[in-house]
Amino acid sequence: MKSIYSTFSRLFMLLFLVLGVSSIYAQHARISGQVKDPSGAPLQGATVQLKGTKIGTVSDVNGAYTLSAAPGKYTLTTSFVGFSTQEIEITLGQNGLTQDVALVNTGDLSTVTVVGSRNVSRTRIETPVPVDVIPIAQVVNDVGQVDLNQIINFVAPSFQSARQTIADGTDHVDPGQLRGLGPDQVLVLINGKRRHQSALVNVNGTVNRGTVGTDMSAIPATAIERIEILRDGASAQYGSDAIAGVINIVLKKRTGLLEANASYGMYSTSYDKNFPLYKLTNKADDPSVHVTDGETFQGSLGYGFSLGKGYLNITGEYIRREPTNRTGTYTGPVYPNVNGVNKDDSIMAARGLNRDFFDMRIGNSKMNAGGAFYNFAYPVSGKTEIYLFGGYTRKDGTGAGFYRYPSGIPTNATIYASQAFALYPNGFLPRINSEITDFSTAVGVRTKLGQWNMDISNTFGLNRFNFIIDNSVNYTQFAIPGNKQTKFDAGGLKFWQNTANLDLSKKYDVLAGLNVAAGLEYRIDAFGINSGEEASYKNYDVSSKAVAGAQVFAGFVNSIGDDKTRNAKAVYLDLEQDFTNKFLLTGALRFEDYSDFGSTLNYKLAARYKFSEQFNLRASTSSGFRAPSMQQRFYAKTNTLFVSQGGTLVPVESGTFTNESEAAKILGIPELKEETSQNYSVGLTTRPFTGFELTVDAYQINIDNRIVLTNNFTGGNDPLLQAELDKAGAGAANFFTNAIDTRSKGLEAVLTYNTSIARKHALRTVFAATFIDNEVKKGPDGKPIIHATDILINSGQIGNYFNREDQSRIEVANPKNKFSLMFNYKYNKLGAMLRFVRFGKVEYLDPTINPDSAHKFPINAFTGQRETLDQTFSEKTVTDLSLSYDITSYLGFTIGANNLFNVYQDKHTHSGNVSLGRFIYSRRVQQMGFNGAYYFARLRLSLPTK
């Protein structure tokens, strides 16, 4: 607890420093109140300003606002998209003023982007498809999470993101999913424009293996106003990747407000580190240990400049995250046997060591990240506005691999073992350091072309992911006398994208209103590989047949030449017809032509019927597609993968080959083609009384030719394949391929209730739930239907193409249901947030089990009992609590805890991944991570400027 007290004391010292600065504003008085719609429900996100000054703010989730100004007479101006601007003359005295505001609907939403509809007059509740709006600008003040993926994970049940560990580069980028589908089956936009993907390919055996996602953690959460999540297929509207839906990130554009934020927190938790050792030795002492780690600091500073009728909002953010470690105590042999006898205890005692010295690092990676984002718009005339937005982020991370024990030296490396372990007499834990650079910028013009609204834009994005390996060796390099190299530049990956758009829209007075939108798009995607330094990958002694390259992560070798590029051309038409003020019908068509795999035509139909002002029914059907990513087409590398053999994890050098390689042709691996989908949804929205809103939506998504990364093919009895493996220095090969078809079904519900009591009390309640059922399509025999060529089937290695573990990643490795219940209470200056998030059960299916066998599970050689290698992990509920206080109208602080009751997922028992005690918790399947309770404090400043 001492460390927790230290954490809070640091925050309070910072608080007093800011209070000293704030004394300059002590003569100001306070204006507060609540903004409501015509029904009396609170309006979140309304802009409240004192006319003629730069003093302003935005209403919170309860519609509440607070301003601070010198006493005097002012005009209070309140505006919100879809409502008429309200101006109220006020007189502010020394004792402050309470002023509520009620706005009136106008239907004008021209200043906001809402995904799911190209009609800017459509509100969220009126869209024919489900759209969630998350006010990130307010959420960040109440929670301890600091990066975007983790914030959304605990707010939106349909979104799932868990940090990975011992997964190479994936440790440094949190893959995010929507509706249990892949990270690359959700399209990410910023201000309505396509966001580029990460260069990284997830090739390890964790959830989302074989996918390429968008690194949303590269976008500072403090630069964001809100996030809109379209939970419906939208390929006909937005193009490739929008099978599961669309996430649109809207950047801040408020002006005249200096915003600063600082938070500090850490994990303080107990877990059963010695549990496997405790079971092995039957010790009676407590196997648990207490740890304090994962210290995280976040600081941000943002300001909005008023440029006449234009604006420029800039936000910079820095995050320092220390690693966490929930490793188990290693129970296996550390040193080679002496005359056939294990002497670990005596050797460790002589060297002053114990087994804790040989711990792995299993948990969050270390991360230092800094970046800045900007959002600019300026009207150059009454009809024309230019805009720019984008940002730059640099992230430096450190993760680790498997410990290399002196007892575990590969047989074919023993010739150099004495030299390697002269550097590391007790073995070594190799580290993977990442250098991630992310840059994006968009520039555009909005204007009028006759009666048409026209938007011309160009968006560029670049992601580089480089690897530095240290605390390692290349065994074969000891063939060079005097070698002591322990740090290697392993090269890396890069991906860039440029998208040019022309969008047109116009409203017609046809029946109750017709909105017509059309547009063109031209996109270039590019992927490249940067070779590492020679020592990171070279085999300096081929005759030794030792594993070549830096231990834990051999360097990249650019085998594809210059950056590979492709272009995609698209044209779309989008119609929304209000036949009456009750019945809406929308339709969209989109044709895209890719330079590398051909063309595709997709459609969408959606309808909404308003039975009353309180009740709507909606439904949609659409086709969709996802083009194979450039990373999946051209990624090529040899990686050290640890696979289970006889209950022990064994390192295997596995090469990922392209589908155009000779190895792919030998095995009959077909060339990649696009994934196609068919989406159906039906739902309802209701507002039965003031402040209460409920949406319920059911869906089904059928995906054909889904792309997966195969497992490892060996040379076997095929000399041609073995020759290709030998050329690449690999013992096995894997490939990206369109192996399966899947079906996803689900139900989603969101309920919100806002109420205020006696003016000063406000309570917002949000309940959200999702039920997910994803499955690989199966034949009459109940087995997965696998798309494989005759060559592949006849090779006898069809089991390496797609196995039970691959199936489990799609069907059961992510929570099949997720519930969130949040209470947000505000009384005068005091606020409280209480949130419960329940993660449904997950399962692991072992690939070595033969489901057709009468005895599916093997017999343990030591116990004589039949083992259960599959595992089900039970449901878990995480509780978050925070308390906030407004010291002044512009200064406040929050203290709180995430996972208040220190909940962990079930202990790990499945397959060889237990790995002699090292893995207490599974790295193959995760619900909410396994770090325990996190305590934090946050200081926030929102200072209006004159």
UniProtKB/TrEMBL annotation:
Give the PROSITE patterns listed for this entry.
TONB_DEPENDENT_REC_3
Main localization (coarse) = membrane
Where does the record place the TonB-dependent receptor-like beta-barrel domain? 393-900
Stated membrane topology is: Multi-pass membrane protein
The residues covered by the TonB-dependent receptor plug domain are 125-246
* Keyword Cell cycle appears in the UniProt entry: no
Identify the InterPro entries for this entry. Beta-barrel_TonB, Beta-barrel_TonB_sf, CarboxyPept-like_regulatory, Plug_dom, Plug_dom_sf, TonB-dep_rcpt-like
Q: Tell me the keywords, alphabetical order.
A: Cell outer membrane, Membrane, Receptor, TonB box, Transmembrane, Transmembrane beta strand, Transport
Q: What Gene Ontology cellular component terms go with this record?
A: cell outer membrane
**Keyword Nucleotide-binding carried by entry:** no
Per UniProt, subcellular location reads as: Cell outer membrane
Superkingdom assignment: Bacteria
Instruction: Tell me the protein family, please.
Output: Belongs to the TonB-dependent receptor family.
The identity of this protein, by name, is TonB-dependent receptor
Which species expresses this protein natively?
Flavisolibacter tropicus
